[in-house]
Design a protein that fits this description.
The chain is of the alpha+beta class. It has 14 helices and 23 strands. The strands form five sheets. Strands 5-4-3-8-7-6 form a six-stranded antiparallel beta sheet, sandwiched between helices. Strands 9-18-17-14-15 form a five-stranded antiparallel beta sheet, with helices on one face. The longest helix is centred in the middle third of the chain and has 37 residues. It comes from Streptomyces halobius.
Length: 738
Amino acid sequence: MADHGAAEPAPGATNRDRGRGREHGGAAAVSGAVQAAADGPQGGGAGRPEPDQHGGRYAARAALGSAEAPEPGDGPYSGDNARPGDTARPGGAARPDGAARPGEGVGRPREGGQPAPSGGRGGEAGRSDGAPVPPQAPPPSVPSPPARSAHPAQPGDGAEMAAARQASGDRLRFIGAATRRIARGIDLDEIVLGLCRATVPTFADAILVYLRDPLPVGDERPTGPVVLRLRRTDRIPEEPDTNGTRLPVLPAQPDLGPAMGGSASELAEVRPGGPLAEVLRGVRPLFGEAQAARTALPELLGPDTRLPGGHRVILAPLRGRRRVIGAAVFLRRPDRPAFEPEDLLVAAQLATHTALGVDKAVLYGREAYIADALQRTMLPDSLPQPTGVRLASRYLPAAETARVGGDWYDAIPLPGSRVALVVGDVMGHSMTSAAIMGQLRTTAQTLAGLDLPPQEVLHHLDEQAQRLGTDRMATCLYAVYDPVAHRITIANAGHPPPVMLHRGGRAEVLRVPSGAPIGVGGVDFEAVELDAPAGATLVLYTDGLVESRIRDVWTGIEQLRERLTETARLTGPNPPPLEPLCDEVLDMLGPGDRDDDIALLAARFDGIAPSDVAYWYLDPKAQTAGQARRLARRALARWGLDELTDQVELLVSEVVTNAVRYAERPVTLRLLRTDVLRCEVGDDAPQLPRLRQARPSDEGGRGLYLVNRMARRWGATRLSMGKVVWFELSMPSGAPHG
């Protein structure tokens, strides 16, 4: 039988050189078996032997090799020198089993004791390409004696080699299936569970997986003592259930049963320089009978744990990319066959793949946590409470496979008791998408503060997205609601259309021009103005609510419209409450509908009745302040708010006087009666007033100081054609509200 796993020593080499070459050939075979195990039974490639060829020959040689077991933790052919008990080969090359390989050299006996044919690989050392090699006869003066074997070939050796080859193939197939199962896990629990389910009961009767607590992330250096926590165990039950199936085992179940050593410790502190630290530093799996493992296992599992004798325990350190992150203990019951030396290679492969998977899961979990925190901090902590509209919102991250996105919503108060409603979605799922979302949201808030029309806001957002990068694209819907006029103006940039739920229970998909997404560039956006009757509800959402792998966007929009209609039917003539309405909308999502994150914003339009609004135009002249005081007094008397007359007259006089000083066009004065009394004064001067401390010698500068002390709230907003200064006063107790 030709051996393609190791090169023959060159003629004339010394005995030591030939022995060293044979040992390196065996080490190469071990490396090939480990690489084949990592690739899996299906992972053949160019120049890579199939598992039933290379791996089978390695297992056959290992099975028929050394008569004595190697030292614990040592793989076959791990050293350069021959071990005790090796029989010398002709020319000085030593075999671990003391036997010559069949078919080696001219005149050497083949299996069954027959001499090898003259056309074998007798003289060409290292030829493994399968080409015929011309025979080379030995020099006449130095005859080649036949090799002597400590174990003469027997008629049954072929069956033993076939069985060994079959066992090697089974190991390789098991490693391939187990590593694939471990690699399927994304989070930490899935990876550890994959290791347990892959090894019990196929490889071991019980397993314990210990991981560092806390697990280090990336390059960070953990501080404090190294503590290992029992993350999960699994075992075959002592007695099967009535159906003969394996009973489920709870996570972190330390009880291994009486036959497997009883209870194990859940926490183990690794003492520096102790036996457990030395084993973890060595990385290589060890049998439980090894001296190092015998002293390390009580430190890990607890001194009272009774372990099976013989080679029925394997302690395998789990080393990630940078450091040891835990350990796995594989156990077999005393009534089961013991582990074989080749099983150390299997344990090493399982430990390596598990440790790398744990590293991957920890890094992914940290990145997902950072991105999710970044996403949530960029969303509004709480919604404002503007006059004439009630708001509710929801945000749901996507499934664990793609939980980070760029969806956002916002509600921005505007001058004149108006409110801007915004919802958008940055394309992509990454921390970059979340960062771009934050930039676009900030830009939208700044543009809203300038009181630009919705189409102009989208145009500037489009320019900002192009400045951020050529591939920075997003969809956005921007709407401005005026509670006094009961109208809403909407502009759309490639976003799903909003749905209006009317007071009578009818849900309507609003006809809004879709437009192009933000970031395309050179696109004109169009705005439409629609009625917003009192009691109606506007629902804004991102495409994650209505689109998924199992349904298209228009099917999802129709399902949303039907869900809103059904919810409104339950509450009869009254509109449904906003918070339960948002929950009902999210309940339409199925198990396969969480491919994208979801942002939802619902606005209930209450409006402001015309009887609760007083509006005047005043010429900018010296007598305007007195005229404003008289108009405000009459409005308060009509509303039954005489208690506020003195305060309102004083504050209105101060604000109007400041507006008249700089205005060139008529000044506007508006009073709104809702749950508060709001006064708004507008002029065409763009300079915003600033609160300052007036000196005793100053003639002015005290008006805003009085407003700041007496008003409940106040502010100033710049408009495209000027500014608005407003203040609010609390309603007196028992006063009628609008």
